[in-house]
TrEMBL record, chain B:
It comes from the Bacteria. The chain crosses the membrane at residues 60-83, 104-123, 244-264. The lineage of its organism: Bacteria, Pseudomonadati, Pseudomonadota, Gammaproteobacteria, Alteromonadales. Keywords: Membrane, Transmembrane, Transmembrane helix. This is ResB-like domain-containing protein.
Length: 229, 273
């Protein structure tokens, strides 16, 4: 049994403050998603606001199954909350989307649009966790980050398959030689690369964690840059 | 001579990173009009007919050659990795090992690659026509007749001006008030081997007979052709592998979800990976 499991008898200092912050931000995200969609005929899955809100929601949800047992893990949760707060703040700079585009009708297109922010949300959470581990190894957090990376990759793949099916139903081609396809393939392969970092090239677990953090950070910046450029 | 490096994680890392980088080069190439036109041409043709396009734009040809080379090496590395590293876990029946799901994930990924390859070599390409009611065309052994167009939105929006353009944007960017795919459809009849099939197709809801998929991708009224009424843009695609392709993708997603559950369950019980 590792040391982190032994010391989980008392919640860490400021634990309740952290929990309150998570619940508060979760409520803010859900209410803003409802405000955006309640007056729209179609779910605004492709908008910038929904991208930021969905990413924030996933970052917060990634904290829910995670047991905070020490100050170090609380730090992880607070950094995630800070990033969510920044995303929420940025989201308010956009007008409330009101698109009635025919593109938003099929569930496949909605799945495609939502998969990117979901992957970014899990990816950022995993990146922060790995960054913290590059300074202090925590097995509980390491496992959690591994699962979040897997979730990010799977979410991205689900979106790719949904988009692929959407394209086939609409235009008879599941993919094509286009810039969008290259960026998608590039991003998915980078997500696959997270699980293929050779341990032999890193002389310690903390260096490996740092390598994964850098890669995940780059992937998230790539997706965000492509969306908001 | 030692051949461990052929199925090593290090080679896999180098190859995946190289393919990613090469796709990045593809994004840069796509910024140039000449390359973009060449890529658009490749989208419309099966691989056997790529020759002229690639001779006229050698940079695109070189990019594709390197991409296929890297993909082939990655496929070999994956096959060897499955054979040497992942299959023993199954042979030794280590059902509780975290590596147990790795083999199906890698096999399914290879199959998806394979289907992409088959699609590229044999299937890419389609028949695209604009038809008025009553007109027909031949696609392979299938005779497709457009029997009726049920267009219920305002035709003024889709009527072309002298420049051949209508007031509407691309079909995916149209407002539902201008164009609602749910209540505009076409009625078709498809004849093959003396058998005739009747059905409807809407935008995003193709009509399917055997391996033939008939899609309607746009409605319009030509300039000065108001008397002829609305015409529909129709695409006919012959794709016998599409179902297997998606079965592989869904199976891959399910194995990944199982892997996530496996780790989650194990972590809860043991606290470590």
């Amino acid at each position: 049994m590792d040391s982190t499991q032994v010391k989980n008898t008392n919640p860490p200092k400021h634990f309740w403050l952290g929990s309150l912050l998570i619940v508060g931000l979760l409520c803010a995200c859900v209410s803003q998603i409802m405000i955006i969609n309640v007056n729209n005929v179609l779910f605004q899955g492709s908008s910038n606001s929904m991208f930021l809100l969905s990413s924030s929601l996933m970052m917060l949800l990634s904290l829910l199954p995670f047991k905070i047992t020490d100050q170090y893990q609380l730090k992880f949760a607070l950094i995630i909350c800070f990033i969510v707060a920044v995303f929420l703040g940025y989201q308010y700079t956009f007008d409330i989307p009101t698109s009635n585009s025919a593109m938003l009708l099929p569930i496949w297109s909605q799945l495609f649009f939502l998969s990117r922010p979901v992957a970014v949300g899990f990816g950022i959470a995993a990146c922060v966790g790995y960054l913290l581990q590059s300074r202090n190894k925590d097995y509980h957090l390491d496992n959690h980050c591994h699962m979040l990376s897997l979730l990010a990759g799977t979410a991205f793949l689900v979106g790719e398959v949904a988009g692929n099916f959407w394209a086939f139903l609409g235009w008879g081609k599941s993919w094509g030689w286009t810039g969008h396809f290259y960026v998608s393939a590039l991003t998915y392969l980078l997500l696959v690369l997270v699980f293929h970092l050779p341990k032999a090239w890193f002389n310690s677990a903390s260096r490996l964690a740092l390598g994964k953090a850098v890669l995940l950070g780059f992937i998230c910046l790539l997706i965000l840059g492509y969306k908001f450029s | 001579m030692k051949t461990n490096w052929l199925y090593s994680m290090r080679l896999a890392f180098v190859l995946i990173a190289s393919v990613s980088l090469w796709f990045g080069v593809g994004v840069l190439l796509n910024n140039y009009q000449v390359s973009r036109n060449a890529f658009s041409a490749l989208n419309e043709l099966p691989m056997a007919q790529w020759g002229d396009t690639l001779i006229n734009t050698p940079i695109v040809g070189l990019w594709l050659l390197v991409l296929f080379g890297l993909m082939a090496m990655l496929a070999v590395n994956t096959v060897l990795c499955i054979w040497r590293d992942l299959m023993p876990v199954w042979r030794q029946k280590r059902w509780r090992s975290p590596r147990i799901v790795m083999m199906p994930i890698h096999v399914l990924t290879l199959l998806v690659f394979l289907f992409h390859g088959v699609d590229l070599v044999f299937i890419h390409g389609h028949d695209k026509v604009m038809l008025h009611e009553g007109e027909s065309f031949q696609s392979g052994q299938y005779k497709i007749t457009l029997t009726r167009i049920n267009y219920r939105d305002d035709v003024a929006y889709i009527t072309a001006n002298a420049d051949g353009k209508s007031k509407l944007k691309r079909i995916t960017h149209r407002d539902l008030k201008e164009f609602d795919p749910r209540h505009n459809d076409i009625e078709l009849s498809v004849t093959v081997n003396d058998k005739t099939y009747h059905g409807n197709a809407k935008f995003m809801a193709p009509f399917n007979v055997d391996n033939l998929y008939v899609m309607v991708t746009d409605f319009s009224v030509g300039f000065g052709e108001e008397s002829k009424g609305v015409k529909a843009q129709i695409i006919a695609v012959h794709n016998p592998i599409v179902n297997y392709f998606y079965i592989c993708y869904v199976a891959l997603i399910l194995t990944l979800l199982f892997q996530i559950y496996f780790f989650w369950h194990r972590n809860r019980k043991k606290g470590t990976r």
